[in-house]
Amino acid sequence: MKAVVQEEISGCGIATCAVLAGVSYAEARSRAKALGIHAQDQALWSDTAYVRRLATDLGVELGARELPFESWEGLPDLAVLAIKWRRERGRPFWHWVVFRRDEGGESVLDSKKSLKRNVRQDFGRLKPRWFIEASVI
Hints:
This protein is of the alpha+beta class. The protein has one domain: Cathepsin B, Chain A (Alpha-Beta Complex), CATH 3.90.70.10. The protein is built from 4 helices and 7 strands, in the order H-H-H-E-E-E-E-E-E-H-E. Helix 1 packs across helix 2 and helix 1 packs parallel to helix 3. The relative contact order is 0.23. The mean pLDDT is about 95.
């Protein structure tokens, strides 16, 4: 599993699905567009429905519910996380990232373009609010 850098400022949900499916950002964006999903739509980062639809279309299964983050140890081996959670004009917003645990250890794949490294292990800085378990079909 490799990090995918978002090509649009608000494309973290599309990039998260690309990471999980093992496809490029361009391919995930094309599939999203066919589903009527666009990075400019604020619902992409303030609602889970679009990411769930795109993930399913790309062959990724997401858990039915968002679960509160309690600890890094309590996460499943693969999950999408909501970090940078905040409210703007009464509406929740967050940044989507992927958590993975494998034989190489634990890391977060963060699509933010301005990061020097998109594979992160600075867990203390991330402060997730909730997660959704993921599995590749």
